[in-house]
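re: ur question from earlier - yeah i can do the single chain one, its not a big deal. heres the input i used so u can compare w yours
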Amino acid sequence: MAKIVNPLKPLTDKLPKPLRNKYIITLIIFFIIVLLSKINPYTQWKLIQSKEELIDKKAYYEDKLEEVNQDREDNKKHIEKFAREKYYMKKRDEDVFVIEKEKETE
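and the output i got, formated as tokens:
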């Protein structure tokens, strides 16, 4: 029988001894595949776009929250005036006199 000769034998002889091990080669190929499948340019671009969009939304909602808090403070200041004028509310030690204007008849 004829002996089968490996055509890659001259190349494999040039590699260091640990890299000739088939398990090490398999692990290296596996890690390369995993890294390339997780980190591709399209996915990274989409993630960056999503991050920028979320940052913009965060800034928008922080501004809105600030506006609402300011309105709430303004409402707290004017709620007593509104209650006194509209519903004739008073404090415990006050008396309220309602003076209505007479309608002019011609």
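Residues 21-87 form one domain. not sure if urs matches, ping me
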